[in-house]
Design a protein that fits this description.
Elements: H1 2-19, H2 26-46, H3 59-80, E1 86-88, E2 90-93, E3 99-112, E4 117-121, E5 128-129, E6 134-139, H4 143-151, H5 159-174, H6 183-206, E7 216-220, E8 225-228, E9 230-231, E10 255-256, E11 261-262, E12 267-282, H7 285-294, E13 298-303, E14 308-319, E15 322-329, E16 341-346, E17 352-357, E18 362-370, E19 375-377, E20 380-388, E21 394-400, E22 405-406, E23 410-413, E24 432-434, E25 441-443, E26 447-455, E27 462-465, E28 468-471, E29 475-478, E30 491-493
Antiparallel strand pairs: 1-30, 2-17, 3-12, 3-16, 4-6, 4-11, 5-8, 6-7, 8-12, 9-10, 12-15, 13-14, 13-16, 14-15, 17-29, 18-23, 18-26, 19-20, 20-21, 20-24, 22-23, 24-25, 26-27, 28-29
């Protein structure tokens, strides 16, 4: 009964549910709720929400970035910082160029034509002539001169004539330079003139009746000397009359006196009538001072034109503000009569010393103190300085000082030298010095400039004075063993403008 009624009850409930009648049973609600929960959980599990995560720091990238930045900073500093280079001082000699160009002054006389007419020349330039030497002829009508020229081609040159021509060619070849190629044309003209002169001379000898015409004149040398057919305006210039402009060969010009037709009064030739001649050679002030200090009286020179040597009396002569070496010769004039500017090389042995670059040289100001004020206490040298006590009474104290240089009158001390215990300047400007055993006083203040270099042996810049013997465009040769100077293997600053005194170099 119970089971039957239970089966019927279940059937009724199901039917009521199908018909939608009444409230659904509690169990069905539970099942339906479970199914919905299962479906919702499934939907939640299928919906994935992406979350942003912080990436870990890339250590390698940071490291290489820092290295790159460091390299960039170093490169920037290297490009914008002036480098300080050192130089080791060594002993040696300095190759100094002792070649100079000097102004040649000779005793010269210029001679002019007395009549007008056609000219033929018979004496060669550079030839020594005398009163019996035929220099040229003048044909007022031109007939004999034309006859000479017409028959010149039929006249043969002698062996002596060819010897003269060969000598001229050899002399030109020994003096040839590619840098002065224009002289080739001058030589061509000169050689053609020499050949014509020789042919004219031979032809004239064959014309026995050439002198019978009163309109035909033979002109002989007016004096003994070296013959030249040019003028340049320096013929009457004396050693005392030279100007600074005359020492410059850039604007020099020659006037050729040779011509076919001349007028009476025109210049024809000139003669250098004395073997004594002089050269004025411009020098730098340092060179002139060096020669004067040596008290040089003679100088051996080599002429670069033909590489011959000669001795000359030597002295220093000022032309305006330019110091010049005056060389007085008693020979060799004949070889250079055609030159106004002569190149010579002084035969001077290069001195030895300490070789330093010019870029290391610096100038510094020092106080000049009369030598009479110097005194010594033991091994120290210094001066008596006037000071005042608490009561305003004057007294003197000894102050040791470094003597950087000396001359015949003064010692030179550093204005910045200080007492290492107090840091105060030892000799401020205006300080009075007192001479020992005397009432004479001297006030510090007079300054003088001294050349020197910065020594860096101790890792910082220290001024060392130098005494320059010779100097060229790159290096200077300085004396070794000077007071507070340089010695072999000292280290100095190569570029002195990049540092100051007492500046630390090695950090």
């Amino acid at each position: 009964m119970h089971m039957a009624s239970g089966g019927r009850g279940a059937a009724e409930l199901k039917g009521a549910a199908d018909r939608g009648e009444g409230h659904p049973p509690a169990r069905i609600h539970i099942l339906e709720d479970s199914e919905e929960c299962w479906m919702a959980g499934r939907r939640r599990r299928n919906k994935v929400v992406s979350m942003r995560r912080k990436r870990p720091i890339n250590i390698d990238l940071v490291f290489f970035g820092a290295v790159a930045l460091y390299i960039c900073v170093i490169c920037y500093m290297a490009m914008n910082t002036e480098h300080i280079a050192g130089y080791e001082v060594n002993a040696g000699s300095l190759s100094v160029n002792h070649t100079y160009t000097g102004l040649a002054l000779r005793e010269e006389r210029v001679f002019s034509a007395e009549t007008s007419g056609y000219v033929s020349y018979y004496a060669r330039e550079g030839e020594r002539v005398s009163g019996s030497s035929l220099v040229y002829t003048i044909d007022e009508k031109g007939e004999i001169n034309a006859l000479i020229r017409q028959n010149a081609e039929n006249v043969d040159l002698t062996d002596e004539n060819f010897s003269v021509i060969r000598s001229s060619i050899r002399s030109y070849m020994s003096d040839y330079s590619d840098l002065e190629f224009s002289k080739v044309y001058d030589f061509e003209t000169s050689l053609a003139g020499s050949v014509m002169d020789l042919m004219n001379q031979n032809m004239l000898e064959s014309l026995e009746d050439a002198g019978e015409d009163s309109m035909f004149s033979r002109i002989y040398a007016a004096n003994i000397g070296i013959l030249e057919y040019y003028t340049d305006g320096f013929e009457e210039v004396t050693l005392d009359g030279v100007t600074e402009e005359m020492l410059d060969p850039s604007g020099y010009e020659k006037v050729n006196l040779k011509k076919e037709l001349v007028q009476a009064g025109e210049q024809m030739y000139k003669l250098a009538v004395s073997e004594k001649w002089s050269l004025l050679v411009p020098l730098a002030e340092e060179e002139a001072a060096g020669f004067q200090q040596e008290e040089r009286k003679f100088m051996e020179v080599e002429f670069t034109r033909d590489h011959t040597k000669a001795w000359a009396d030597f002295s220093i002569q000022y032309v305006g503000a330019t110091p010049c070496a005056r060389l007085d010769f008693n020979n060799s004039m004949v070889r250079f009569a055609d030159l106004r500017y002569v190149e010579v090389e002084f035969q001077i042995e290069d001195e030895e010393g300490l070789k330093i670059p010019n870029t290391a040289i610096v100038e510094k100001e020092f106080y000049a103190v009369p030598q009479g004020f110097l005194m010594e206490e033991g091994e120290e040298k210094g001066f008596l300085k006037e000071v005042y006590d608490e009561n305003g009474q004057a007294e003197t104290v000894f102050v040791s000082m470094t003597l950087y240089d000396a001359d015949e009158e003064n010692y030179y001390i550093d204005p910045k030298e200080s007492d290492y215990t107090t840091g105060a300047l030892k000799m401020p400007m205006g300080t009075f010095l007192v001479q020992e055993d005397s009432q004479e006083r001297f006030q510090i203040g007079t300054r003088s400039t001294i050349q020197g270099v910065y020594n860096i042996n101790k890792g910082y810049t220290q001024f060392r004075q130098i005494d320059i013997l010779y100097q060229n465009e790159e290096f200077a040769l300085v004396k070794e063993g000077t007071s507070y100077g340089l010695t072999v293997y000292d280290r100095i600053v190569l570029n002195s403008e990049a540092v100051d005194e007492d500046e630390v170099i090695y950090r």
